[in-house]
């Protein structure tokens, strides 16, 4: 049975015109005054997969919890399926699936008992066995939750999130702890859900996951979105790279002036904002000079390179800022290892 066999049987529900998820100027301060989300705005269209990326402590989970209706923003507005997810929780919650970063299950129940209990509490639920099969946990149905591996617990989390046949799925680091095969299976399932019209908001630290799945993404740093767009748009702002090795008898000084900067002996790495032009110039020079470029490799910036570049730039600009990283009323570095709000443990 494939993931597709389980889909497309949602009960008829009101269709929303416009974005399914909308955040506008959203802020979140914790009780101790620490502002974890500092004016975040974005929207997600129906059937779109939007990934929220960022450094540790950037504010991703704090933002997602607001979208899930688990907490109220300090400022700004949020709409999910046209409703305020906190005030109008009863209208939103049955239509959404939530996979928290840390699920909390009664550990003495078996996997099947847990899924059945969840299914019994959900209107229009998938049968428990079906949800388990979707995530590849059928063979572990009789095992107690406390005996599951970390990766298997993530899959059970996902099964429960899928129980309500959600129109909107919030996945907070869904593949953390999964092995390579489990990750690929989960990607396939997420792709199938999206193809079926499910809107997905995903947070992840795996940049290749965002690259593989996301229609659009945003990179957060210190409570703010610093860049957003498609993967191509986000990486386009970063320089592309051309690498090759020159033959022994061709010194790097023979390269055209504009291409010499990245030479280290015979090995050359050129960073360029205009990949096509630079390649054209290089290949024209190589042909005219009869030079063989060994191991020639040219590629656009990867999402990982773009991410690291953006994170480093942000860190540099903050350390150069005379007001320092903790400018304003709150100090972002004051609580580096802060335990998450208890809401994280809530799986309802
Ligand atoms: N209950 C809380 N009280 C005070 N500060 C908190 C609380 N929960 C989280 N924080 C702080 O808010 C900031 C953002 O945390 P959040 O969990 O949203 O980040 P994140 O981007 O999801 O990080 P990670 O990728 O490490 O999971 C962190 O500095 C964190 O210590």
UniProtKB/TrEMBL annotation:
Residues 21-247 form the ABC transporter domain. It is found in: Cell membrane. CDD domains: ABC_DR_subfamily_A. It comes from Streptomyces cavourensis. GO terms for cellular component: plasma membrane. This is ABC transporter ATP-binding protein. One of its GO terms (molecular function) is ATP binding. SUPFAM superfamilies: P-loop containing nucleoside triphosphate hydrolases (SSF52540). It is a peripheral membrane protein. Keywords: Antibiotic resistance, ATP-binding, Nucleotide-binding, Transport. InterPro entries: AAA+_ATPase, ABC_transporter-like_ATP-bd, ABC_transporter-like_CS, ABC_transporter_ATP-binding, P-loop_NTPase. One of its GO terms (biological process) is response to antibiotic. It holds the Pfam family ABC_tran. Residues 331-348 have a biased composition (Basic and acidic residues). Residues 314-348 are annotated as: Disordered. The keyword S-adenosyl-L-methionine does not apply.
């Amino acid at each position: 049975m494939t993931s597709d066999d389980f889909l497309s049987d949602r009960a008829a529900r009101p269709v929303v015109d416009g974005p399914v998820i909308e955040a506008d100027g959203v802020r979140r301060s914790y009780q101790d005054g620490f502002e974890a989300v500092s004016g975040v705005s974005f929207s997600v269209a129906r059937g779109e997969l939007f990934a929220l990326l960022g450094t540790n402590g950037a504010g991703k989970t704090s933002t997602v919890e607001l979208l899930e209706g688990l907490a109220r923003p300090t400022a700004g507005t949020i709409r999910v399926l046209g409703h305020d997810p906190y005030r109008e929780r009863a209208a939103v919650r049955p239509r959404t699936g939530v996979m928290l970063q840390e699920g909390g299950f009664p550990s003495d129940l078996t996997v099947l008992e847990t899924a059945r209990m969840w299914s019994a509490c959900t209107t229009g639920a998938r049968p428990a066995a079906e949800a388990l099969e979707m995530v590849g946990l059928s063979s572990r149905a009789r095992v107690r939750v406390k005996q599951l591996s970390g990766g298997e617990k993530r899959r059970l989390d996902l099964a429960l999130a899928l129980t309500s046949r959600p129109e909107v799925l919030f996945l907070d680091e869904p593949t953390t702890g999964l092995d390579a095969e489990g990750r690929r299976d989960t990607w396939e399932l997420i792709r199938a859900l999206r193809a079926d019209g499910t809107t997905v908001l995903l947070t992840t630290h795996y940049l290749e996951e965002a690259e593989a799945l996301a229609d659009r993404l945003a990179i957060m740093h210190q409570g703010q979105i610093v860049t957003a767009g498609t993967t191509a748009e986000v990486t386009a702002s970063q320089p592309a790279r051309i690498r090759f090795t020159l033959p022994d008898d061709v010194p790097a000084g023979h390269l055209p002036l504009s291409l010499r900067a990245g030479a280290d002996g015979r090995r050359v790495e050129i960073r360029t904002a205009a990949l096509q032009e630079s390649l054209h110039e290089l290949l024209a020079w190589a042909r005219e000079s009869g030079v063989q470029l060994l191991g020639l490799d040219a590629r656009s910036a990867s999402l990982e390179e773009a991410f690291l570049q953006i994170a480093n730039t942000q860190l540099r600009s903050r350390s150069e800022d005379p007001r320092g990283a903790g400018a304003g009323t709150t100090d972002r570095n004051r609580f580096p290892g802060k335990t998450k709000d208890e809401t994280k443990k809530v799986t309802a």
